[in-house]
Design goal:
Distance between the termini: 10 Å
Order of helices and strands: HEHEHEHEHEHEEHEHHEHH
Strand content: 5-15%
Radius of gyration: 19 Å
Shape: globular
Largest sheet: 5 strands, parallel
CATH topology of the largest domain: Rossmann fold
Number of strands: 9
Bound molecules: N-carbamoyl-L-aspartate
CATH superfamily of the largest domain: Aspartate/ornithine carbamoyltransferase
CATH class of the largest domain: Alpha Beta
CATH architecture of the largest domain: 3-Layer(aba) Sandwich
Oligomer: single chain
Number of helices: 11
Length: 303
């Protein structure tokens, strides 16, 4: 594999499949009594998060520790970044510490790509602006494959704030590459301006959910909205919320996914989020195995 993982768009289908298959082996490791392997012993990983994160940062940290890496969490709010240090200087400093991997989340789209050309360390994109969130898409594909056996031919509905969602973008790239049929369901204001070829667009959620095998709910990302994209949260839930009644329109074996953090009562009802059809916590568990696979496969760790 390449030195970095900056996007799903740039991955070949066989690379995607290799990551997923490797993650299945790491999931077995996680079921053992001792969940640690020596793969990254002697390697240093720096986690550099310029945006809030609970599950992605924790998941990366656990994955790194289970591979026996030395882990350093660079805390942006207490670093020289707040004194005006440029991203370039922060990165060069981290490189001087001898980092072998840099896991970066940044509010600007394109930063991980820029960084990958600047440093010899392997760069992993943990979410860049509204662009991509590759490891989320990989853990979502892993979860679908684990639950459904095969991704090819599945009907998958991505519902909600698609316009601002890097999760939706990365998932669209990966699930199309893996042969799924994608539906976008959103109000016109939250639909992206460029819908990828092959994706079916629905403005009516009841029509869009009919017969689907997977429902992927997205958080309404208010922090990325510079104006009002819908009149009120109550109205949004009424028109686009995933409720038990709407889930009944889907295939009877449908699974419900959400990348978290969830806004219960806005994009999804508590009843659905806590139902047996929801695989939201399994997505969290699978995230560790998938990130272990990525760390193992990129760079030179597996040479
Ligand atoms: C997502 C993100 O940060 O892009 N969350 C995550 O990584 N678990 C989705 C979101 O914030 O809505």
């Amino acid at each position: 594999m390449k030195k970095d993982l900056v996007s799903i768009k740039s991955l070949a289908v066989d690379e995607l499949e290799l990551i997923l298959n490797t993650a299945f082996s790491f999931k077995d490791v996680l079921k053992r009594d001792i969940k640690k392997v020596p793969t990254l012993r002697g390697k240093t990983v720096v986690n550099l998060f310029f945006e809030p994160s609970t599950r992605t940062r924790t998941s990366f940290e656990l994955a790194e520790k289970r591979l026996s890496a030395d882990v350093y969490n660079f805390s942006v709010p207490t670093s020289s970044v707040v004194k005006g240090e440029s991203l370039y200087d922060t990165i060069k400093t981290i490189q001087a510490y001898g980092a072998d991997y840099i896991v970066i989340r940044h509010f600007c789209s394109g930063v991980p790509f820029l960084l990958s050309g600047m440093v010899s360390a392997s760069v992993i994109n943990a979410g860049d602006g509204t662009n991509e969130h590759p490891t989320q898409a990989l853990l979502d594909a892993f979860t679908i494959k684990e639950k459904k056996g095969e991704i090819k031919g599945l009907n998958i509905a991505i519902v909600g704030d698609i316009r601002h969602s890097r999760v939706a973008r990365s998932n669209t790239y990966s699930l199309i590459k893996l042969g799924a049929n994608i539906r976008y369901i959103a109000p016109a204001t939250l639909m992206p301006c460029c819908v990828p070829e092959g994706v079916k667009v629905f403005y009516d959620i009841n029509e869009g959910l009919r017969g689907v095998d997977v429902i992927m709910a997205l958080r309404v990302q208010k922090e990325r909205m510079d104006k009002a994209f819908f009149p009120s949260e109550r109205e949004y839930f009424k028109l686009y919320g995933i409720t038990a009644e709407r889930v009944n329109l889907a295939d009877s074996n449908v699974i419900i996914m959400h990348p978290g953090p969830m806004n219960r009562g806005i994009e999804i009802s508590s009843e659905v989020a806590d139902s047996t059809k929801a695989v939201i916590l399994e997505q969290v568990t699978n995230g560790i195995a998938v990130r272990m696979a990525v760390l193992y496969l990129i760079g030179d760790s597996n040479e």
